[in-house]
Amino acid sequence: xxxxxxxAKISTFTRTIRLALEYLNIPYELLETLPHTExxxxxxxxxxxxxxIDGDVxxxxxxxxxxxxxxxxxGNQTQGQSLTPNTxxxxxxxxxxxxxxxxxxxxxLIIAVSKPRQSMESQGKSExxxxxxxxxxxxxxxxxxxxxxxxxxxxxxVGKSWLCGSSITWADLFMFPIFxxxxxxxxxxxxxxxxxxxxxxxxxxSDTDIAKQTFEGTVADSRSKQQSKM
Length: 230
Ligand SMILES: N[C@@H](CCC(=O)N[C@@H](CS)C(=O)NCC(=O)O)C(=O)O
What we know:
Glutathione-S-Trfase_C-like, single chain, Glutathione S-transferase, Glutathione S-transferase Yfyf (Class Pi), Chain A, domain 2, EF-GSTs, Glutathione_S-Trfase
């Protein structure tokens, strides 16, 4: 039976799960819904997305989905690649970075910056007004960006290009959709000029097949379409 992902292309957490399924070549269908719709509540009492369904298995939190997808991948003898490393120390490291992505980065970059910016833009506020209104949020965002930047800088100094080592892990999959949204906003300048290692990591991930396969319908996609109409 094909897995079903209930969620939206625009949702960062949904994109994480789709990135994993694409990476591991696990077929799935996307049942598209935004949060807090009748469909979202049908599968998740909190109205959040995504939900992952596989027959009788229904999972409403991405951490549980991660564990389940790893389980599917381990059962698939033909698959060589894994998103979770083998040793306990490496797994703990990945778990920490997933938590940083899902909590600090999501809260300070998506909830505090990306969503209010988009809402102010749609209300027709000027760029000056938007940047003034976001001033304190951007200070907090800078702390998160700075911490990720210094981690990536020290990883790069020992030749490691991904968040948790030399290959893509779940940590990259949780972090990337957040940066894909942020990098499509004027706030990309903060990353580009103040966090060069983070910017390089973002560009490296953007260039992967899985990033391209899940680009359509994202905030970055709709903004690039809007800009090309102008
Ligand atoms: N802890 C949840 C977070 C999921 C989440 O916050 N999803 C967002 C969409 S990216 C959502 O449903 N937002 C609506 C809301 O917070 O009310 C998970 O890991 O699955």
